[in-house]
Design a protein that fits this description.
This protein is an alpha/beta fold and 157 residues long. The chain folds into two domains: 9-64; 78-148, Chitinase A, domain 3 (Roll). It has helices at residues 13-28, 38-60, 113-118, and strands at residues 9-11, 62-64, 78-84, 90-95, 106-108, 126-130, 136-146. Residues 24-47 are annotated as: Disordered.
Length: 157
């Protein structure tokens, strides 16, 4: 059986509002490229249309500001702290929509190789994923905290 439901995108309220503002601005400035060279105008128009479609898709499939359960399981809307097998240091990032910008936190998409590998992992669980050059990287999930409970969420993103 095929899943026909679109994938839901997790967004903070602030990121959702920023996207709505950007969409309104793109609509408002739709004719502002008339002074550009005709070839440039076509390219600018295509870029604008692509961004409008991307934002509409994000907003149309958004779950806004609803923190996932604080159960230590990696899923969109969680701030993850990981340790890579080949490094002693850790990395902390939000598992969410990259195109939405979420403040100071680095954002990895759930559809990225790392995001796909970590989704569903529990604290302490080691996962592996393949990078574009074909090599495999091991990563251990150290912590998974809902965005709203993470210290970075205390300041507006």
């Amino acid at each position: 059986m095929t899943d026909t439901q679109p994938r839901r995108t997790w967004l903070t309220r602030h990121a959702h509002e920023r996207l709505r503002t950007e969409l309104a601005e793109l609509s408002r400035t739709a004719g502002d490229d008339e002074s550009a060279d005709p070839d440039d105008r076509a390219a600018i128009r295509r870029q604008r249309q692509d961004r409008v479609r991307e934002i509409q898709h994000l907003l149309g499939n958004a779950v806004v500001g609803e923190d996932p359960p604080d159960d230590g399981v990696a899923e969109p809307g969680m701030v993850l702290t990981v340790r890579y097998d080949d490094a002693d240091d850790t990395e902390t990032f939000l598992l969410g929509a990259r195109a939405a910008e979420h403040g100071d936190l680095e954002v990895y998409s759930p559809d990225s190789p790392l995001g796909t590998a970590l989704t569903g992992a529990r604290r302490g669980e080691r996962r592996t994923y393949r990078v574009p050059d074909g090599s495999t990287i091991g990563v251990t999930l150290l912590d998974a905290v809902p965005h709203g409970r993470h210290p970075a969420a205390a300041r507006p993103d």
